[in-house]
Design brief:
alpha+beta; Aminopeptidase; 7-stranded mixed beta sheet; 8 helices; 35% helix; transferase; GNAT_dom
């Protein structure tokens, strides 16, 4: 796809970043944030959180793909040490919701850079934007001093797993994540990793 610009996310991008993160989470964002704030959708809660600009869950942790002044994709990443249940999350989210994600948040490849979310709007998929976002994330990781990139994907998302395997990721371990009506996935998740 031509005329796509890749840049660091900005505060003005928070709504689109949140929408793409919501899509990429395939139900996880809805499960975690649904009905937490009166009259706000899970995406709006996520967008407001990104605007607060608290590392690592901030617009600054993203690379966005922009075409004709419109955000069409994004990738959020940061050092894997920050992939955990923080005191802030404990204060904000009900314990029952966090409990389901205990294994998810405790699984990581130590010393790696973590790709938290990558998403491209459906009408722009298949044009190489996801691959370019992944490559830009690898460059970002190297600049920050890392030589490995890790991520977590639903075990039954074979299309995503195939994409990552084509891009040199390999299986590290399985992660338990029980199915829920808002996250209709079987088999939990997989932790994947690649050398950069």
């Amino acid at each position: 796809m031509r005329n796509v610009n890749y840049r660091q996310g900005q505060e003005k991008d928070c709504q689109e970043i949140a929408e793409l993160s919501y899509m990429a989470s395939d139900g996880a964002v809805e499960y975690l944030f649904r009905d937490l704030v009166p009259n706000m959708t899970a995406t709006e809660v996520l967008s407001n959180g990104l605007k607060r600009d608290v590392y690592p869950h901030t617009f600054r942790s993203t690379i966005v793909a922009e075409c004709e002044d419109k955000i069409i994709g994004m990738a959020m990443s940061y050092p894997a040490e920050f992939h955990r249940i923080t005191s802030e999350l404990r204060e904000f989210l009900p314990e029952s919701r966090l409990e389901r994600f205990t294994d998810f948040y405790s699984s990581k490849v130590e010393g790696s850079y973590f790709l938290d979310a990558i998403g491209v709007y459906p009408e722009h998929r298949g044009s190489g934007i996801g691959k370019h976002l992944l490559d830009e994330t690898k460059k970002k990781a190297v600049i920050e001093g890392y030589n490995e990139l890790s991520l977590i994907v639903f075990a039954d998302n074979q299309a995503a797993i195939g994409f990552y395997k084509k891009n040199d990721f390999h299986y590290v371990e399985s992660i338990e994540l029980m199915r829920h009506e808002l996250m209709p996935h079987d088999g939990g998740c997989c932790l994947l990793n690649c050398k950069i």
